[in-house]
Amino acid sequence: MANELETKAINVIRGLAMDAVQKANSGHPGTAMALAPLAHVLYTRVMRYDAAEPDWPDRDRFILSAGHASMLLYAMLYLTGTGGSDSLTLDDIKNFRQWGSRTAGHPEYGHAPGIEVTTGPLGQGFANGVGMAIAEENLRARFGSDVCDHRIFAICSDGDLSEGISHEAGSLAGHLGLGRLVYVYDDNHITIDGTTEIALSDEAGKRFEAYGWHVVQAGEVAEDTEALEAALREGIAEEDRPSLIILRSHIGYPSPNFIDTPKAHGEPLGAEEVARVKEILGMPPEDFWAPDDVLELYRQAGRRGAAERQAWMQRVEQLHVSEPELAEEYVTCLAGRGRLGWEQKLPSWPAGEQIATRAACADALNAIAGLVPGLLGGGADLTGNTGTKLSGFGVFSREDRKGRQLYFGVREHAMGSSMNGMALHGGVLPFGGTFLIFSDYMRASVRLAALEQARTAFVWSHDSVGLGEDGPTHQPIEHLASLRAIPGLRVIRPADANETSQAWRVHLNSDGPSAFILSRQKLPVLEGTAERAEAGVARGAYVLVDETGDLDLVLIGTGSEVSVCVDAQKALAESGTSVRVVSMPCWELFQLLSEEEQAAVLPPTVPTLAVEAAATMGWERFADDTIGLDRFGASAPGATALENLGFTPQCVVDRALALLTTGGNRRATPPGFGGATAERREQP
Predict the structure, then answer these.
(1) Would you tell me how many other CB atoms lie within 10 Å of the CB of residue 98?
(2) In this predicted model, what pLDDT tens digit does every residue of 13-63 receive, in sequence order?
(3) Cα 622 from Cα 610, distance rounded (Å)
(4) N or C: which terminus of the chain has fewer CB atoms within 10 Å of its end residue's CB?
(5) pTM to 2 decimals?
(6) CA quadruple 186, 187, 189, 191: dihedral positive or negative?
(7) Active-site positions?
C-alpha cells in the first residue's frame, strides 16, 4: 500500500483536478479523482522517462485516450516537472480551459511537453497507441534493443471501447501481437447518460481475448497501489500479446454525494462538495494545494530516468563506432528525413506515356524507400490498388518486425489513427492507402492529423467518376471540398505521374499531413511536367501551357482534368483564342503565395474557367466559372461516365467561349454540369 507521503501525493492530484474544474466551472473531475492512484504508480514506479528531456526517443509513452480526464495528465506533468523550464506550472493548472492556456479541455499535442497525442474524440488515443507500438517494434527489430526498447501505456474508458475504431485497432493489435502495449480499461460503469448498463453489455475481457490480447482482471483495486503496480507489471511481462488491464474504479471517489454518478463525470462538484472531499482526504481547504514534500517526491520521480537516458546516449554513440551505417540509418529515421540525394531518386516520365497516378505513386515510393528509411506503410486491403505496395522491404508481421510493408486489412479508421500514432512516435514516416470515397471512414483521424500536424501521408486513389463501373457508391463527389475544408491538410491532386512524384518531395520536405488524391485510370504524362512540376507542385499551381499573344482566358485543372484542359487549349488556339493552362494540384500551397505570386499565375483581370470532376464548392475563390460535378455519379465505364458528365475537351471549349461571350460574368449552368455561383474575384 502507499506510504503516508504517497497517500498525500495522490490526494494532491485529486485536489488539483477538483480545484481546476471548479475554477473553470467546466470539465470532468471524477475520472481524474478515481485514477489518481493509477497515475501515481505509472509516473513514480513503472514508466521510464526523463522529465528534463521529454522528447527522449526511447522513453515510454503515455496516452490518455480518455482525454476528458485531462486534468489527470496535466497534474502529473506539472508535479513531475516534465519539460524542465518549459513544464506546466501551477498557474497553467489554475488557467485550465481558459483562452490561451496550455491546459485545454482535452490534451492537445504540442501545447505542453509530455502530451504525446491529441485525445478527446474517444477511441483515437487507443488507436494512436497501436501505431506507436508498431513503430517501436519496427525500430527495435531494425536497430536493436540497445537503442529502442520501450512501451506504450494508455488509459481508456468505456467510451473508447464503445467507439468502432477501438474494435478495428484492437483487432489489428492482437493480430500483430503487439506486446509492448499495456492498456488500462477504466471500467467505472458511468456515462453521461447514466450507468453504462443502459446501453452497453459487452464483456470486454472476452472481446479482447478473442482479438488475441492478454487480459488482466484487476478488479476492485483502484485504491491499492501495490495491486495496481502488480497488474501493470503483469502486462509488461507479456511480450507476445498486447495487454488490457480491466480496473473497476469508482468515478468521483471519495465524493460523498457524487461518487458513481454522471455528475462526477462531466460537471464541477461544487465548492461545498470540494470542501467536503478535502476534509475526508485530510487536506487543507486551500485551493491548488501542492506542498513542497509532494513536489519533491514527484520531481525525484521525474529525474529517475536521467541515468537511463544517458546510458542510452552512450549506446547510440557506441553504435556509431561498431556499426556506423546502421547508426546513420537510425539517426536518419529519427530525424524524419531522407539520406543525401534521395530526391534525385524520384522518377520522371517522358511526355506521352500513359500511367495512372496511383501506379506512379507506387513507383515513386519504391524508388526512394531505400534512401528514406523511415517510410512504413501500406493499404487497407487495397495495397496494390492504391499505389502503396513496397517491393523488397519485407512485410511487418509477428514473424518479421523489420518489414516496412503494412497490411492494415479492411480497417480504414484504425489505419488513419494508427498512422498518426506512428508519426507522433517518431522514427517512421507512415503512409496508408484506400479509395478516396472511404476517406469518410477516416475523417476523424485526418482532422486530428491536421490538428496535431502529424507527418502522415494519406493516399487516396480512385478519385473521381473516372473509376467507372463500381458506380455512385464508390465515386467521390464532395470529398475534395470536404478535405480542403480541413485547416492544415495539404490536399494534392496531381495531373500526371511527374506531379505525383513531386508530391512526395513536397510531403517529405514539409511538416504536417498530406492527402494524395490519385487516379484509377491511366493519364497521359503531359508535355512540360518533367521540367515544371518540381517547382510547380511545391507552389500549389503553375503555368503548364503558355498562352500565345495577349491572354484571353485561363483554364485551371486538377488531376485527370488537366489533360482535358490541355486538349481544349489546343482547340481554342486554333480558333484564335489565346489560352493559358494552369495545373493546380494543391490549393493550400498556392494560397501560401503572396498576392503578387498568385496573380502571376492567375491574372485577376483575365476570365478563368476551372475544370474538376468533383463538387464545385470553393472554386469561386479562383475561377469565374467551374465545370464540376454537383450530383452523384453513375455506373458505367470510366471514360463513358466522364464524357456523359461533361468532362471532355469540347465541353470545356463550349463553356470557355460562353464565358468569353459574357465578358467573364456567370451564366446559367447547362444540364449535366455543376458549377460555382461565384462573382468575379477582385484578388486571386
Answers:
(1) 13
(2) 999 999 999 999 999 999 999 999 999 999 999 999 999 999 999 999 999
(3) 8
(4) N
(5) 0.96
(6) positive
(7) 412
